[in-house]
Amino acid sequence: MPLVPTRRPLGTGLAALAVLPLAACGADAGTAGDGSARTLTVLAAASLTGTFTELAERFEAEHEGVRVDLVLDSSGTLADQAAQGAPGDVLATADTASMERAGDARADDPVVFATNELVLVTPAGNAAGVEGLASLDDDDVTYVVCVETAPCGALAEQALTDAGVTREPASLERDVKATLARVSEDEADAGLVYRTDALAAGADVATLDLPTSLVTDYPVTTLAQGAEPGLAAEFVDLLLSEAGADVLAAAGFGTP
Predict the structure, then answer these.
(1) Sign (positive/negative) of CA torsion 68, 70, 75, 81?
(2) Which residues have C-beta within 8 Å of that of residue 241, sequence separation ≥ 6?
């Protein structure tokens, strides 16, 4: 069994992911057969942190006795773990290529629920004077991107190639949140992240649009190994509902 990334249960600190108990037949909507609370585990791309936290809180409020655990990491990492049978009920990735890697772990045909766009960000003061992708070839400018196996890394590689940038990034970060953190904490002069993450960072970063729009699709599916298929389907329904679309739009995600 592969290692599963640290989960972020709502309202708690970091904890190790536990194997979920199977719900007994005849249990009510919020408890397992032994009367304990039921847990829905949602594996989601790091760029979905804010929106899925909000949707998870809403889901818990509508399902008494149900707890939603969000496992947030790079899409490729989560898809590979799902394919190897790691515990999980729902998988949402930041591109279709990562979703394909989940293979037979997908219980349903994935449905695209949102889109996102790559942008260039700098620390709020932009002390390095970054004006666009061409500035990344300046020896005095340090920039960071996601690893190539992450959807944000694949898009960044395409953007850099299209712009003719030849200098290597200062570092390759595991996901978009880590990339954004290096910039917002002024540890890098620039970084390539999603528009939604740049919006979430607020005044901590300045955002520069790319000359050519680079967009990625976000698909979701329930997982065959899930212990809570009924709750998983209901969570996907919430995500695809008008309420879910409103939460995503407020965060800056585009519609499919």
Answers:
(1) negative
(2) none
In a shared domain, residues 211 and 148: yes
The pTM of this model reads 0.84
**Residue 199 and residue 85 share a domain:** no
Residue 38 has phi, psi (to 5 degrees) of -90, 150
Which two three-digit tokens encode residue 93? 């990735």
**109, 222: one domain:** yes
Q: Which residues of 47-58 are buried (b: 16+ CB within 10 A; e: fewer)?
A: bbbbbbbebbee
What CA–CA distance (Å, rounded) separates 249 from 228? Answer: 28
Domain region containing 15: 7-114+218-250
CA-CA-CA-CA dihedral for 189, 215, 154, 1, to nearest 10: 110
Tokens standing for residue 103: 């293979």
Number of domains forming the structure of the chain: 2
Residue 1 covered by a domain: no
- What are the pLDDT digits (tens) for 122-176? 999 999 999 999 999 999 999 999 999 999 999 999 999 999 999 999 999 999 9
- What's the Cα-to-Cα distance from 249 to each of 44, 49, 183, 190, 253, rounded to whole Å? 17, 14, 24, 26, 5
